[in-house]
Amino acid sequence: MANSSSESNFIQVTPFMHVQDIEAALRFFNDILGFKTLLRMENYAYVQRETAGFRIMEEQGPEGAPPGNGRFAYYIDVRDVDGLYAELKPKLDTLPTRDVHGPADKPYGQRELLVLAPDGNLIAFGQAIEAGKL
Question: Does the pTM exceed 0.85?
Answer without folding.
Answer: no
